[in-house]
Amino acid sequence: MHERKIPIDLECGINVFTLALGGKWKFCIIDCIHRGIQRPNEIHKSIAVATPRVINMQLKELLDHGIIDKKVYQGLPLKVEYKLTELGESLLPIIDAMGQWGDEHRDTILVEEAYVQQS
Length: 119
Hints:
The protein has helices at residues 13-21, 26-34, 40-46, 52-64, 86-89, 92-118; strands at residues 68-73, 79-84. By secondary structure, the protein is mainly alpha-helical. The chain has a single domain (13-118), classed as Arc Repressor Mutant, subunit A (Orthogonal Bundle), CATH 1.10.10. The chain has a two-stranded antiparallel sheet with strand order 1-2. This is Helix-turn-helix domain-containing protein. InterPro entries: HTH_HxlR (IPR002577), WH-like_DNA-bd_sf (IPR036388), WH_DNA-bd_sf (IPR036390).
């Protein structure tokens, strides 16, 4: 692991939030688990645009921060399932609000995105 040249200001709640949840697919992973998609291969299929390597890295980070929990069932083949912890459950209102904002502003954002792509 590398040492940061500029330390993170952990007195700022936004910095703590982005430290734990920064990453393109973490909110999607949390949403998948909340909707009942708990096995790694199901999560990979649900977020097909992300590589399994990236999803696995972000699952590990969510585990490390205590946002999700992992249960390993013995047997062959090995079965792994993820679930939200209480800390992870506390993020659901934020994720719901993000989805609502996206729904409300979809047309504006997509119009701007289409303009940028045409330029």
